[in-house]
Specification:
ATP-binding; Heat Shock Protein 90; alpha+beta; about 400 residues; transmembrane helix; phosphoprotein; kinase activity; five-stranded mixed sheet; histidine kinase
Length: about 400
């Protein structure tokens, strides 16, 4: 189905009976009508002065030409039919020559080349017959034929030029619309990706803190008779985790409000902060073993972008172990070297006791897979046959 603009320009018969001409359409149709009338008047004068035409035929020629000029108003509805009918009429009437030229021009503008080729070729073929029936007193037969063929070809060429120009303008307009739509889609996609990044960052940052709060609050709820030292330690962890979560939340809100990622003054953690993360987990009562097997054991040598991704993966792994395997010993292993890549794994056996009900949706593992993929790496996780859990990520490390 053609768009309305293309249908109006190149296929007026598809616009529908209820469509109304625009001001531009009325002006174009009126101009074509005046052109047909003007050329018809010239043809009528030529017929009246032509000694080769029998007396009484001039009136018939003029009546036929007037009807042809009136039919010009039908050019938008039936361009093919009008141009085809005008071929024999133009042979019989010189006054209808202007209307025939307008019909042929309209055909070249509004219809494909196959229609123009057949009807235009037929119009050229009848030129010798026209001048044989009504010779021109001012020109020889050969010159008259050449002039008629040249004039018909010029009308067809002009119409095809107008059609090509309109097609070019419509193509440029369509490209502009597509470019605007693509720009809107790119903007929408960029907004969606930004929202996903913010959501992933909020999950990675806040889940670790809130899990600490949930675990220790649950311990206080189910063990109100715990020793005072444990209660004090749990309360301290809750207070510290609440403070850290509030700071992290302020940082993310600052980003949402258009600020920079470090607007709070707190730099994004890298792999150099892994020791602090492990110590924090140990303070919360977890059993964590950190195995640093890098070629250069100094974690500060790891690039910042790579280190941030590895840190978030380790943080999420420890958070999951704290939620789903409380009391189990967790092993965090970091291996790799420049040019070989960095491998980080978090492994834990089955929990020794009952696992408390801790809310979770599995979005963390999905976010880690997206992080690793965006960094050009790989991420996988699996449950062990003994009830344990193992997650591992490989990230590229340029040499």
């Amino acid at each position: 189905m053609l768009p309305s603009a293309v249908a109006r320009e190149f296929d007026p018969s598809r616009v529908g009976p209820k469509s109304r001409r625009t001001v531009r359409d009325w002006m174009a149709d009126f101009t074509c009508f005046l052109a047909a009338v003007f050329l018809g008047m010239l043809g009528a004068d030529a017929v009246a002065d032509n000694p080769h035409i029998a007396q009484g035929y001039a009136e018939f020629d003029q009546v036929l030409g007037a009807l042809a000029c009136a039919a010009v108003w039908l050019r938008r509805r039936w361009p093919v039919g009008l141009a085809l009918v005008m071929v024999p009429i133009s042979v019989a009437s010189d006054t209808a020559g202007g209307a025939a030229a307008v019909a042929l021009f309209t055909l070249a503008v509004h219809r494909p080349f196959r229609y123009v080729a057949w009807i235009g070729g037929l119009s050229i073929a009848v030129v010798p017959l026209t001048f044989w029936l009504r010779p021109d007193p001012a020109m020889s037969y050969g010159v008259a034929i050449a002039f008629g063929v040249l004039l018909t070809g010029a009308v067809i060429g002009w119409g095809m030029f107008v059609r090509s120009r309109r097609e070019l303008l419509l193509s440029l307009r369509d490209r502009a619309v597509r470019a605007e739509n693509e720009a809107a889609l790119r903007a929408e996609q960029a907004q969606r990706l930004a929202r996903e990044d913010i959501a992933r960052e909020m999950h990675d940052v806040l889940a670790h803190r809130l899990t600490l709060l949930s675990v220790h609050a649950g311990a206080l709820e189910f063990r109100p008779d715990a020793p005072r030292e444990e209660i004090v330690r749990a309360a301290g962890v809750i207070r510290e985790s609440s403070h850290e979560a509030l700071q992290d939340l302020r940082q993310v809100i600052g980003v949402l409000r258009g600020g920079e990622a470090d607007a709070s003054g707190r730099p994004q953690p890298t792999l150099a902060a892994l020791d602090t993360l492990v110590a924090e987990s140990r303070d919360a009562g977890m059993k964590v073993v950190l195995a640093n097997r890098l070629t250069d054991p100094d974690l500060d040598t790891v690039p910042a972008a790579l280190g941030r991704t590895a840190y978030r993966i380790a943080q999420e792994g420890l958070t999951n172990a704290r939620k789903h395997a409380p009391g189990a010993e967790v092993t965090v292993t970091v291996t790799g070297a420049p040019g070989e890549g960095l491998t980080l794994s978090v492994r834990n056996p089955a929990p020794p006791g009952d696992v408390p009900e801790v809310p979770g949706s599995g979005q963390g593992l999905i976010g880690l897979a997206e992080r690793a993929s965006l960094a050009g790496g790989r991420f996988g996780h699996r449950a062990g046959p003994d009830g344990g859990f193992h997650l591992e990520a490989w990230l590229p490390w340029a040499s």
